[in-house]
Design goal:
- By secondary structure, the chain is an alpha/beta fold.
- The protein contains ten helices and nine strands.
- The strands form two sheets. It has a seven-stranded mixed sheet. The protein has a two-stranded antiparallel sheet with strand order 3-4.
- Helix 10 links the parallel strand 6 (207-211) and strand 7 (235-242).
- The longest helix has 19 residues, at 4-22.
- The radius of gyration is 20 Å and the shape is globular.
- It starts with a helix and ends with a strand.
- The model has no long low-confidence stretch (mean pLDDT 95).
- The structure holds S-adenosylmethionine.
- S-adenosylmethionine is lined by residues 72-76, 80, 110-112, 116, 144-146, 149, 197-199, 213-215.
Length: 270
Amino acid sequence: MTSPQLEDDGFAALAEKITRERGFGCASYKEKCVRRRIAVRMRARGVHTFEEYGQVLDRDRHEYDLLLDALTINVTKFFRNPETFAAIDREIVPALFARVEPQLRIWSAGCASGEEPYSLAMLMHRYAIAQGKRFERVDVLGTDLDRASLAAADRAVYLEPTLGDTSDELRQMYFSMQPPYRIHREVRARVRFLRHDLLREPFPEVQHLIVCRNVIIYFDRDTQEQLFERFASALLLGGFLVLGRVETLFGPARSMFAPVDSRERVFRRV
Ligand SMILES: C[S@@+](CC[C@H](N)C(=O)[O-])C[C@H]1O[C@@H](n2cnc3c(N)ncnc32)[C@H](O)[C@@H]1O
């Protein structure tokens, strides 16, 4: 039986190894969450200590990919939490088109396989068409740490389960009729993807809207607080931050935002 102290040392060493070798900054994520994910992979490989699992990673590089897959939780959907998208449609889309800047910059941070940024582009397109506005003003950027998810996002071809929260109207407007579902060309053309690590890289600036949902919940409190301040700096005055239902805005950044929809955690940069 390994002692708890040795197990703690073993965890710290493994976390450092993963960060050093694969650039996944374990120390900024909630430790409980990282431990749980690693434990799943350890069980799958039938090993009992962090040290042994480190040896598995050395022998089998494919296991590294499986581990990173487990650590970056890539679950997403089109219009995931439809009430949040209803708030965006109601409170943000018209306000963005009313802005004077020629380009409208929208950033979906931690976008996984792209459903969130495409959903945002669809709402912007529907409004532009209905109101006679120029959709070409819209630039949506989707970023994520995970390359495989981004490759799927670039393909822009999806299967039924991920369309589950999409209304019939939006399905008809923006997806091909038969599976696998392709996204409407005009919408696709305004969305681009980039590999980006929220913890280590500079943020794209001068944004009108930042949507970061179901991502920072995995980070520790200090990291979350820093990210809120960095989001505030990346937004134009009057721009919006959407965190969605599971996140809470706290720390010094609170004074840089006014609440727009408290339930859906929509804020305006002031
Ligand atoms: C659960 S998905 C959220 C997808 C989408 N925002 C949604 O709410 O449906 C979380 C995503 O955050 C990404 N992620 C985790 N750590 C990250 C980091 N440091 N920088 C950028 N993306 C990260 C993961 O790769 C994963 O795709």
